[in-house]
Amino acid sequence: MDFQDTKEKVDVESLEVTDEDVDSVVIKKDEDVAVEVISTEDDPTLPIFTLRTVFLGIGLSAFTSVLATIYTFKPQVSICPNASVSQLFCLIIAYVLGTAMHSTFLPQRMLPTAGSWRYLNPGPFNIKEHTAIVIMASTASNVAVAMEVIAALDLFYDIKLHPALAIFQIFASQMIGYGIAGLLRTLLVYPTYAFYPTYISVVNLLQSLHFGGALNHKKRRYFWIVFAAIFFWEWCVLVNDYPFPLLTAISIICLADNGRHTFVRNLFGAGSSNEGIGLFSFSTSWTLITQGNPLVWPLRTPVVVGMALGYIVLTACYYNNVFNGRDILWMSQSLFNDKGGRYNQTAILTPQNTLNATALESVGLPRYTTSYVISQMCYNFSLGAAIVHVLLWNWPELTKAFGKMRFLKSSQDIDDPHYQRKKYKEVPQWWYLLLFVAALALGIGCSYNKGDWLLPAWSVILFTVISSCIAVCIGFVAATTGFTLQIKHIMHILSAFVHPGRPVAVMYVNLYGNSTAYQCLYMLQDLKLGQYTKLPPRATFAAQMAGSIIGSIFNYTMMHSIVTNNRAALIDPVGTRVWSGWIIQSYNSSSVAMGALGKELFTYGKPYYLIGMAFFIGLSFPIPFWIAHKLAKKGSWISRAAEFINTPIIALYIGYLPYSVNGQWWSCLVIGLLSQWWARTRRPKWFKKYNYLTSAALDGGSQVILFILSFAVFGASGNSVPFPTWWGNPANLSVDRCALTD
Predict the structure, then answer these.
(1) Interatomic CA distance for residues 617 and 621, integer angstroms
(2) What is the Cα–Cα distance from 383 to 574, expressed in whole angstroms?
(3) I need a labelling partner for 662 at 20 to 30 A (CA). Which of 398, 428, 609, 633 fits?
(4) How the protein sits in the membrane (predicted)?
(5) Counting beta carbons within 10 angstroms of the beta carbon of residue 108, is it exposed (0 to 12), middle (13 to 18) or buried (19 or more)?
(6) How far is it, in rounded angstroms, from Cα 9 to Cα 2?
(7) Three-class SS of residue 733?
(8) Do 119 and 46 meet the contact criterion of CB atoms below 8 Å apart?
(9) CB under 8 Å, gap of 24 or more: what pairs does 413-416 form?
(10) Is-contact 334 589, C-beta < 8 A?
């Protein structure tokens, strides 16, 4: 008896030590984060499509789609560049409203919870309701490229589509990507390696809010403490951006120079849009820092290598007058004439929106800034490298997913512990295939307007096929690293050769060559979110479809209202403090440069032929490192270094800097080292429990306060009032005091 008691005591103590050891084990493989951080807990009895789900799902989908459309037509300012409606914002709002309905809604107190009444009185707000609402709202908040193209047609070409035609066009372009995503599930959703790093914090937050236990109680308390702290911190920083804008980007070098030297501004400036590339500039605002996802991106992704090369390459090329850009601006995405002024693109087009060769002779060819040319080249380098990188490094996964047409049967064994489909009916692959074919047919039909093809049917099919192939590559990179590659530049080049002299057709290619791949990526991420939270596949399918339908309707309706009432401001290159068409103008500028002048600018021997060639050059980038990895001794430093060199990401980040505001990247570097190196290796227990929850709290709190201040202070509602000038807010210096202003 004594022996048995002793044996049981020893076993218990051994088990306790083992659990502690597991918590303290360092996460070495990036994809293991999804296994170590996210729980596999599931309750198949939880209701999903309840009154709360329908009411909040539809309401938040309408709200987020309208808000995202408004943001599309807002000026880009230093305090909130490229403001958007994030998934975490949708998650937090849905949680607050869902728990409020559970606590206060009348049927909760008076109606029974059994039988058909359970849809009105389903009990506590649960994780599956919450996930379905988040997927609906975030799907609706993804502003369709089709909406932006339709706005550009209206503003710059006076082509007004029938409302029904426009809405169906928006919906069709999204559903094509959705159909592709469904067919790629066995490759980019089900397996463990497809873990989508940026979604770990979202899932961790959902589970912390809804799962019970002492640990999750601590996590919920921790989340709300950090949420409140960043909320008030961003209140101080963002509001103080009016009286003291230096907080946006702090650069000791810029403060010492005080705007005297353009070289200092170009290299170290970072506080204002298109000011500089931000070397040694630090931001105190999480609304900027979060763009770098420092708590989420795996440290082994070589972003730092790419940016370090970017500082050297961009500066050297500009000051050596590469691409004849030394006499125009350092950073800009606009077209310039031979004297460095804004290019008059309307002067070279006929009333039928084709090239006027006679006018071109007198106006001359447009020019790009050197930094923008380098950036386009790097994006194309990155895409070419990504294709070969995936083929070389991920060939076993490709053959496993696609071998013997298994991607049509979904019959392969899945190693992800979160893949628990025995309890739920899967969405048949033929559903997605049928959706793809139907959406493609609808897209072709909607490309015909008033007796003319905006984009020929054969071109719709061609670029859909190309985009589908590219979606595999960019999906693999996003699923394993969290990074999103850019494909629009290579699509513009390709479309310029397919449709020479037709700017409208070139712009429309964005719907099928560019947008389709990204819509596919958005859908893949949401499918993985459903897998992590054990939302039944058919419920995920229904939520995505509902969000897309609602988003299409409100995207168009809001866009039409804004364009109709603010046409002059949206066409103006500068815009107003309330409305700006800078996003729409970029589509128009690209369509003119690529469509009308493709052969004059991008064929061999022309000024910018290397932009297109960069894609083919990039195909060779991964090969030397893959060969070194194969030839080197397994486990040697050469083998490990070659495996670390992710050439698509390095190439991407060489050209990532010449856009918008760059004051956040050095803050990201410091925070990323503290999180993904120090905490991950030295404090693994804290890292597993709180790192991704911290990311969610910081992102959520900063995005909620940004939303409030955008309408209350920063002019989203048209009521912005500039702060009086003083030393901390000078009239003749940029935000970080690095550049003189007009």
Answers:
(1) 7
(2) 32
(3) 609
(4) Multi-pass membrane protein
(5) middle
(6) 11
(7) strand
(8) no
(9) 414/190, 414/191, 415/191, 415/192, 416/34, 416/190, 416/191, 416/192, 416/531
(10) yes
- How many beta carbons lie within 10 A of that of residue 4, not counting itself? 8
User: What Å distances lie between residue 61 and 136, 681, 740, CA to CA?
Assistant: 6, 40, 43
Tell the residue number behind the tokens 């659990």, with chain if given: 19
Contact yes or no for 202/700 (Cβ under 8 A) = no
- 664 close to 291: Cβ distance less than 8 angstroms: yes
Q: Helix count (H) and strand count (E) of the chain?
A: 35, 2
Cβ-Cβ contacts under 8 Å for 31 (sequence gap 6 or more): 192, 193, 195, 480
Phi, then psi, of 336 in degrees rounded to 5: -125, 150
**Residue 379 token pair:** 């994006």
Query: For residue 292, how many other CB atoms are within 10 A of its CB?
Result: 19
Q: Which are the contacts of 271, defined by CB distance < 8 A and separation ≥ 6?
A: 78, 245, 246, 248, 249, 251, 254, 281, 661, 663, 734, 735, 736, 738
Spacing of C-alpha 262 from chain mean position: 32
How far apart, in whole angstroms, are the C-alpha atoms of residue 330 and residue 334? 12
CA–CA separation, 375 vs 369, rounded Å?
10
Contact at 8 Å (CB) between 172 and 129? Answer: no
> How far apart, in whole angstroms, are the C-alpha atoms of residue 73 and residue 508?
20
What is the amino acid identity at position 383? L
Q: How far apart are CA 279 and CA 664, in angstroms?
A: 10
Question: What SS3 state is found at 728?
Answer: coil
Residue the block writes with tokens 């090969």 = 623
- Strand partners of residue 448: 453
Q: Per-block average pLDDT, block size 10, for the chain (742 residues)? A: 40 42 65 82 88 92 88 62 70 89 62 59 86 94 86 88 91 91 89 88 90 81 91 72 69 85 88 83 84 79 85 95 90 83 79 77 89 93 93 82 54 68 81 94 88 88 92 89 85 87 86 88 92 92 94 92 87 70 80 81 89 94 93 83 87 87 86 89 88 88 77 57 64 73 60
For residue range 217-269, list pLDDT tens digits in order. 888 899 999 999 988 888 776 655 556 667 778 888 988 888 788 898 899 98
Residue 328 · residue 340 · CB < 8 Å = yes
**C-alpha to C-alpha distances, 389 to 385, 461, 474, 477, nearest whole angstrom:** 6, 26, 11, 9
Contact predicate 335/592, CB 8 Å: yes
Element at 449 (helix H, strand E) = strand 448-449
Please give the angle made by the CA atoms of 467, 657 and 667, to the nearest 5 degrees: 115
Burial 39-72 (b: 16+ CB within 10 A, else e): beebeeebbbbbbbbbebbbbbbbbbbbbbbbbb
Condensed to tens digits (0 to 9), the pLDDT of residues 176-209 reads: 999 999 989 888 998 888 889 888 888 999 999 9
Give me the residues paired with residue 336 across strands.
342, 367
With 0-12 CB in 10 A as exposed, 13-18 as middle and 19+ as buried, what is 212? exposed
566-594: b or e for each residue (b if 16 or more CB lie within 10 Å)?
beebbeeeebeebbbbbbbbebbbbbbbb
* Contact yes or no for 228/640 (Cβ under 8 A): no
Closest Cα partner for 24 from 688, 694, 690?
688
Question: Considering the entire predicted model, what is its pTM?
Answer: 0.84
How far is residue 117's CA from residue 350's CA, in Å, rounded to a whole number?
Answer: 64
Measured at the alpha carbon of residue 55, what is the angle toward residues 54 and 59, in degrees to the nearest 5? 110
Measure the N-to-C terminal CA separation of the chain; round to a whole number of Å: 90
**DSSP 8-state class, residue 599:** H
User: What single letter denotes the amino acid at residue 617?
Assistant: I
Give the residue carrying structure tokens 């030393």.
727
CA distance 206 to 529: 10
